[in-house]
């Protein structure tokens, strides 16, 4: 069943990548494959999502920074968790598409849970 937003996921701060991917594949009931492809000449999109009967395929641009690639993956996870058929985002697409906005919002919410430390003792180590 597609999730409505990250608040229903129940992830605590500091969720691990494997747990997040597991949640996505459990929700979609399909494996997800992530493949870095393309280059700086791949200009019309920085990521793509193709849904097949046996798996979901996320393509990301390997020339992007690791942080941006992660965000692109989280955006596509957003589409998967929201039950969308795919991603229509491209440089030529108007960004006010409701599905794109919802996936982008969920990507930011997932990122907050992924990047924050799970234990505030971790913060004390950093001062
Ligand atoms: Zn999208």
From TrEMBL:
InterPro entries linked to this entry: IrrE_HExxH
Superkingdom of this protein's organism: Bacteria
Domain IrrE N-terminal-like: 49-110
Gene3D superfamilies: 1.10.10.2910
Official protein name in the record: ImmA/IrrE family metallo-endopeptidase
Organism, scientific name: Gryllotalpicola reticulitermitis
